[in-house]
Amino acid sequence: MSGPLEGYRVVELTSTVSGPFAGMMLSDQGADVIKVEPPGIGDLARFMGTTRSGMAAMFSVLNRNKRSVVLDFKENKDFEILKNLLTTADVLIENYRPGVVKKLGLDYETIKKINPNIIYTSISGYGQSGPYINRRVYDPLIQATAGAAASQNADNPEYYKTIVFDKVTGLTAAQSVSTALLHRERTGEGQYLPISMLDSALYYIWPDVMWSKTWLGEGIDYKPDLFESFPLFKADKPICVILVADNDFKNFCEVIGCKLYEEEKYATFEQRILNKETLLQEIEKYLEDKEADALCDELDKLGIPVASINQLDEIHEDPQVLEQKSLIEAEHPVGGKMRMPKPPFNFINQNDFPKSHAPVLGQHNREVLSELGVHEEEIMRMEEREKANKEIIEGMLLADVANASRD
């Protein structure tokens, strides 16, 4: 896929979500992203979640438009190939636990000796220092620490039902890489970019979730938290109606056939928030016989912000999604027919999306290693190793299927 980053090379030493998400963003914008994976199973995300024919759905989305190379860092010859590859890279993205890259001899101080201008991006959970540095990190831990879980329900904290901060961190990393490349174009300087999930999460949630915790000291005029302001209503299916403006609330009441707007306890936005529970109960009495789609159309004509709640199997049929061509269907060479969102940006002269599908493990070994000038016998040695590893993995998977059928 062509784009403004065409001609830049990104070496991705990452797994699961945050690092691959960053690589996906950069590859969608035209960068040549080379995903370096360990032999055997490669990125663990290859086996996470729903799969078909051995290709995981999440992996297929996060790793489109990339090339896959398998290198065993424990093998001196493979490690030298990696260092050779890094001399050609504009960007390195890694998401090992803090301290691991130094033990491997792949830390920034070491790599910048062979590539002084590299943009070296280290993604971590809690950062490169501090009391939590050695924790194994998953998205729910960051939701807990950053206050996201408490923001959903202070008395009974709840997680977002998505690994939001893995993805937010990937977005943050990709944007930071692009800015660092711009800086390098202007100054010639590479740099080290440590980016943590915790910092990314706080940066993301703070403006609205923490608006009652931002000003310090006295003289503060507190307002209800924003996330208390948007209740869901139930007609024949749930709908979202934003009733911040008093006139919108009055018009809404008239549409559904009530005069709740005349009651003092619902007269202003602040009063409606304070009495949210009783307001919901009252409104839903008037919505019992209402058809959600028709109600949404009527409210929309009045300029009242409204949307019906799509179930996951309905999103691809939403008329706005169809009009915008927000989702595409394509044929993955291994996984088969699939649906996924196109990038939310489209730069000048970009080609059709995707340029390529998520690769099988080591799919581009010969291609990339030939570009690096690696000898044929070395390429053949690695191909034989991966062939043997593939047979072992396939044997294990077949054994699992057989055991499951017996159960």
Describe the structure.
The protein is of the alpha/beta class and 407 residues long. It has 2 domains: 9-206 and 324-402, Crotonobetainyl-coa:carnitine coa-transferase, domain 1 (Rossmann fold), CATH 3.40.50.10540; 238-308, formyl-coa transferase, domain 3 (2-Layer Sandwich), CATH 3.30.1540.10. The chain contains 16 helices and 13 strands. β9 and β10 (238-241) form a beta hairpin. α6 (139-146) packs across α9 (197-209). The longest helix is centred in the last third of the chain and has 31 residues, at 376-406. The protein is elongated and about 85 Å long.
Chain-wise SSE layout:
Layout: E1 9-13, H1 18-28, E2 32-37, E3 51-52, E4 55-56, H2 57-62, E5 66-70, H3 76-87, E6 91-94, H4 100-104, H5 108-114, E7 119-124, H6 139-146, H7 148-152, H8 164-187, E8 191-196, H9 197-209, E9 232-234, E10 238-241, H10 246-256, H11 269-274, H12 276-287, H13 292-301, E11 306-308, H14 319-324, E12 327-332, E13 336-341, H15 365-371, H16 376-406
Parallel strand pairs: 1-2, 1-6, 2-5, 6-7, 7-8
Antiparallel strand pairs: 3-4, 9-10, 10-11, 12-13
Helix pairs in contact: 1-8, 6-9, 8-9, 15-16
